[in-house]
Amino acid sequence: MTPPPLPGPLAHLAPLLDDYGYPSLALLVFLDNCGIPAPGQTILVLAAVYAGTGRMSIAAVAAIAFAAAAAGNTLGFVIGRTGGTAFVHRWGKYVLLTPERTAKAHAFFGRYGGRIVTVARFIDGLRQYNGIVAGTTELSWRRFLPANLAGAALWVGVWSTAGYLAGDNIGPIYREAVRYQNFLLIAAAVLLLAFLTYRWVRSRRRGKDEGQNRSGTTSKDDA
pTM of the full predicted structure? Predict the structure, then answer.
C-alpha cells in the first residue's frame, strides 16, 4: 500500500526512509535529541505513516525511536555534565552568562529540571538542548533518567500514534500539529519572560527593603 499524499517536510524525507529504513529513523531521532538540529520528529511521523500503510512495523518504529530519543538525550546530558560547566566558566561572559545568571539557572533546574526534561521534547529548541542544559546545571542522574525516559515515551507515543492513525489526513493534521507546537513555543517564551520579570522585580524589592532596614538600623545606632 502506498502512503497518502505527504506535506512538504514529510515528502522531502520519504526518499531517505525508503532507502535506509529503520537506521535512518534511529540516526535522525538520536541526533535531534542530543543537541544537533535534525528532522527527528518529522521522520518519526513519516515512519508511523508508513507503518499505518503496512510498509513498516509500528512496534519497531516506536521501540527504535524511543531508544534513540532516550540515548540521544542521555548523551547530551553527559556532554553537559563533563564539559558544559567548564564551557560556561570560560566562555559564558561572551554570551551573557554571568555567574549570577548561571547560579539562577542552576537553582531553576534544581527545582523544575525533571518536569522540564519530561515535556521539553514537544518544543523545538528545548528538544535538542534540554539534556545539555540539564547536565550543565548539574541536575542529578536520579532525577534526569526517569524524566528522560518518561519524556521519550510520551513524545514517541504521541507522534507515532498520530502518524499511524492519520491516514489520508496526515497533511492537515501535521500542519495543525506544527502550528500548535509554535503556539506552545511562544507560550513557553512568554511564561519564561514573565518568570524572569517576576524574579527581577522581587530581587529589586528585596534589595530596596534591605537597604531601608540597614538605614534604619544605622539611625538607631547613631541615636
Answer: 0.70
